Amino acid sequence: MWVIRRLYDWVLHWANTPYGAPALFLLAVAESSFFPIPPDVLLLALCISVPARSFRFALLASVGSVLGGILGYGIGLWLWEGLASYFYNYVPGFTEQVFASVQNLFSTYDFWTVFAAGFTPIPYKVITIGAGVFQINFPVFVLASAISRSLRFFLVAWLIYRYGTTMRGFVEKYFNLLSILFVVLLIGGFVVIRHFLH
């Protein structure tokens, strides 16, 4: 775990440099395909340091994350056979059991699987690579990624922009729980609507 902690600190240090915004974009790309630290860490620090640019930072994170998701999809589609052992051995969140579960989810809920992973703490890279491995409809994948990742990052940006540094502790402590609750309520709402329409 000390390696993850050092990576976490390394990511955070970019907030105190002139390269914070480009670093956020590159981190978002990398996290969607292979890197273990989520961009929320740096996004939060940057939004607190310059609240007026919060939404610009959220846009950078969103675009980078979707592009990284496309990269992850490509890894799964074209390179998985050669890289599977690397991911299983060295990238947190990847196991054969997890991939079997992901395949089952994709077979029933392709859009919602990508959406939920993009908005909640589920390791997004597992879903992006899995989407390529199991050849999920690409436009559906991109649409679900764009909506969910943008919702996640713009919500963080809005909370800091609206409430300032007082929200930092709240976001760090409860954001993942709130994002899961949001997705559960959203999907539940669609299920209820679908039930009444039938």
Plain-language structure description:
This protein is mostly helical. The protein has helices at residues 2-13, 20-31, 40-49, 54-90, 96-108, 110-119, 124-133, 138-163, 168-197. The chain is globular. Residues 189-198 have low confidence and may be disordered. Keywords: Membrane, Transmembrane, Transmembrane helix.
Report the count of strand segments.
0
Helix vs. strand class:
mainly alpha
Fraction of residues in H or I helices: over 70%
- What is the subunit organization of this protein? single chain
Describe the secondary structure blueprint for this structure.
Elements: H1 2-13, H2 20-31, H3 40-49, H4 54-90, H5 96-108, H6 110-119, H7 124-133, H8 138-163, H9 168-197
Protein name: Cytochrome b561
Domain VTT: 38-161
InterPro entries: DedA_domain, VTT_dom
Question: Outline of this structure?
Answer:
It contains nine helices and no strands.
